[in-house]
């Protein structure tokens, strides 16, 4: 018996087979100051304009404070500093990506990171992604580096960010 492949139709009338649709992950390529990160769409709750955080005295340089977002107090992180990169110094043109946390902690359902510029949508298929040869070394909160269509991207480790925030005892 022949295998039946389900067919879905996009708005433009083009057919998409079930296999093609399931092999791709909808992602956001989010520009930072020196690098760009890649996250699945489901990891990003919302992109918002820069909001001034309520600082925490004696916090590490990467912890900027908390922002008010949709009736939540969300920790705001300078991801590049948290991951061992350079402090961009300026927040001119900055935006914030509010991320869904992954550990199911009701005290910390979201983490926000400072970004630069407007994210772009990417449809990441397995054949388009290759490991990047960069070594993580002593950088923190990075799950890995990949190349997507020839562009080098950072995959953040959201679990590690969440754990580091919890160790600060700010939630």
Keywords:
disordered N terminus; 171 residues; globular; OB fold (Dihydrolipoamide Acetyltransferase, E2P); mainly beta; single chain; three-stranded antiparallel beta sheet
Commentary on this structure:
With 171 residues, the protein is mostly beta strands. The chain has a single domain, classed as OB fold (Dihydrolipoamide Acetyltransferase, E2P) (Beta Barrel). Helices cover 11% and strands 43% of the residues. 25% of the residues are buried. The model is unreliable at 1-20 (pLDDT under 50).
How would you briefly describe this protein structure?
This protein has helices at residues 18-22, 79-82, 158-167; strands at 7-9, 15-17, 24-31, 36-40, 44-49, 63-69, 72-77, 94-100, 110-116, 120-125, 129-131, 142-148, 151-156.
Strand content: 35-45%
Sheet of most strands? 5 strands, mixed
pLDDT under 50 segments (min length 5)? 1-20
- CATH hierarchy class name: Mainly Beta
Any guess at the CATH architecture? Beta Barrel
Strand order of the largest sheet: 5-8-9-7-6
Q: How many alpha or pi helices? A: 3
| Principal-axes shape call | globular
Give the % helix.
10-25%
CATH fold category name: OB fold (Dihydrolipoamide Acetyltransferase, E2P)
Q: What does the secondary structure layout of this molecule look like, with pairings?
A:
Layout: E1 7-9, E2 15-17, H1 18-22, E3 24-31, E4 36-40, E5 44-49, E6 63-69, E7 72-77, H2 79-82, E8 94-100, E9 110-116, E10 120-125, E11 129-131, E12 142-148, E13 151-156, H3 158-167
Parallel strand pairs: 7-9
Antiparallel strand pairs: 1-2, 3-4, 3-10, 5-8, 6-7, 8-9, 11-12, 12-13
């Amino acid at each position: 018996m022949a295998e039946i492949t389900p067919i879905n139709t996009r708005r433009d009338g083009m057919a998409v087979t079930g296999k093609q649709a399931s092999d791709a992950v909808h992602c956001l390529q989010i520009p930072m100051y020196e690098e760009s990160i890649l996250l699945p769409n489901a990891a990003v709750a919302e992109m918002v304009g820069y909001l001034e955080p309520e600082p925490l005295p004696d916090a590490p340089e990467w912890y900027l404070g908390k922002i008010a977002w949709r009736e939540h107090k969300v920790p705001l992180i300078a991801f590049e500093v948290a991951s061992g990169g350079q402090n961009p110094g300026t927040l001119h043109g900055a935006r914030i990506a509010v991320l869904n946390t992954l550990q199911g902690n009701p005290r910390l359902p979201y983490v926000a990171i400072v970004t630069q510029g407007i994210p772009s949508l990417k449809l990441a298929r397995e054949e388009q992604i290759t490991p990047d040869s960069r070594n993580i070394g002593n950088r923190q909160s990075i799950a890995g580096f990949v190349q997507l269509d020839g562009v080098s991207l950072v995959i953040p480790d959201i679990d590690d960010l969440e754990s580091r925030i919890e160790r600060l005892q700010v939630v």
